[in-house]
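#random but structural
TW: two for the price of one
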Amino acid sequence: MKLFKSYSEKEVKRVRPIVDKINSLENEISKLSDEELRGKTNYFKKLLKDEGKSLDDILPEAFAVVREASKRVLGLRHFDVQLIGGIILHQGRIAEMKTGEGKTLVATLPAYLNALTGEGVHVITVNDYLARRDSEWMGKLYNFLGLTVGLVISGMKPNEKQAAYNCDITYGTNNEFGFDYLRDNMVVYSSQLVQRKLNYAIIDEIDSILIDEARTPLIISGRANQASDIYKKADRFVSKLEAKTIVEEDVKDEAQAEDNEKYDYIVDLKAKSASLTQKGISKAEKEFGLENFNDIENSELVHAVNQALRAHGIMKKDVDYIVKDGQVLIVDEFTGRIMYGRRYNNGLHQAIEAKEHVKVADESKTLANITFQNYFRMYDKLSGMTGTAMTEEEEFEEIYKLDVIEIPTNKPMVRIDHPDVIYKNEAGKFRAVINDIKSSYEKGQPVLVGTVSIEKSEKLSKMLDKERIPHQVLNAKYHEKEAEIVAQA
């Protein structure tokens, strides 16, 4: 581990002289009037455009200007370690900064510097709330310095988005930026494009977006054909079948193959696949009066049955989706939030609608898709911040050619990060969690408990009720109450 540490230490040492230079300018810049400080923006633009200066040439003075403006507008002065973080981000690298070290303020430095070229800077956060908060809060600083700030969130009209992307600095979520890129690829006239060239991105929680969600496809669908009764028929058939579920398949011996044939279909949770056995196929032929179920002319029915098998075997209610007001709504596995307006494609959504006995909507077909990995690799320069990137250091290097630099904390760390505790089974783990919460509750210490699914959060809630510990549950079912619950906490 020391080896990696020393790489970061060496890199931090290399930017120290730049920090000293920024600090040496503080005295002089603090004497400027607000008007003179604001005038620096045009002065920098002129240096870049007419005098052939590079961003690195003007970095020390530009950072000193941002720090001074921040003191005046926000009442916050960037610490030296935040200046280091800002330099690392400007270099197109990942700054690993511990929670509470002020990442939001760090982003203002490279965002201002890179916005001076007029080519646009995108600051990307994980949800709409943070994008709005940061754009309003840090926006005061940018506006003071004469730069424009835009916000891109879902539900905006194309002309509003166009205006937001044309700003010097644009805040928004990874989902929205990705979808806007896809929509831009589908317009007919260039005047309808909302995004400009993808110039420079600063990604907050970069590991969550570029590693955990890297392969998540963003898909724009259009209507394909009318949803016939085929999904309902397939559902009626599948709900009568008996399934065997495999959690982790290591041994594939003959005894197991024979055992599999006692069931109608096999669900492999690891591979996320569900398929009929020979016994199941015979039942299907009998049910639908067919000679050969897998004949090419039955392909539509086979497809509907396969999706019904997935809907029953793999897709879990209150984990993958919820049913609300007669609609099947997808739950984002990373944030636990409802993804309004999103539907599973290829008929899977229809199969779930049939399973849950709600109205089956028309089928959709994919018109455009891209993964986050491919979208973000199109930026000329990419950088990001996170509390935990060292663990994914190799992936960042391999996939995105980004290196991770550990930024020292402003004051020595006093928080203790305990190692993981492993339990033999879930019941033991949950009991330990309850006991832990209980002892914190008795001390009057607030506790935040994260679970992997809605179902688990409700199980824990019932256990807390039994122990008479007052608590709030925040999951996709209580999406609307989120701000209120967090405010109360």
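TW: number two ↓
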Amino acid sequence: MQQKMIETTAKTKEEAIEIALKELDADRSGVEIDIVSEGKAGILGLGSEPAKVRVTLLEATNDLVKVTSEVLDSLLSRLEVSVVVNLVQADSSEVGGPVFDVQGEDSGLLIGRRGETLKSLQFLLKSIVGRRLQTRANLLLDVEGYQQRRYQTLTNMANRVADRVTSSGRSVPLEPMPPDERRIIHLAVAEHPHVISESAGYGDGRQVILRLADD
């Protein structure tokens, strides 16, 4: 899928992205953007470092990426927030589809308390895209990398709890989580030699329980 890739530097990552887009003669929905370095402002100009980005032009934008980009742009326009949308991956093996990251001065408004606003926005996005394409829309919407940080936190927690289960021999139920977060827990524990995970409960109360594999 990848055709051409360039790296650019500028004072900010947004400036570096815009430079790359102009060189590639493309818009954000037709490229993958990798932030190599956020850059540093420095003090009085000392110790400053430019931001660096790697932008890859895609040969063709698939229907899921195209429709998701259009719907997401429309939703954010209606919300009247000052943000930009970056296509991080066109086809993530973990997600089973594209990964988008929203950045900008109003990004915090899109995350909400404990990520509830972001979850609702992703649910709405997937529903609309799924209806338009008449199929299940596998995609991930992130805001300033919040979701990825959350997933890493869950992975670390799952490993700590698994060690506790191993040492105590007692099963440990985790707090109720949405499907995507339960999946992260299951993946984190999948390779553990002594602990397994299983889901229990219904609806919003569904949770993951970690227990010894030989229980």
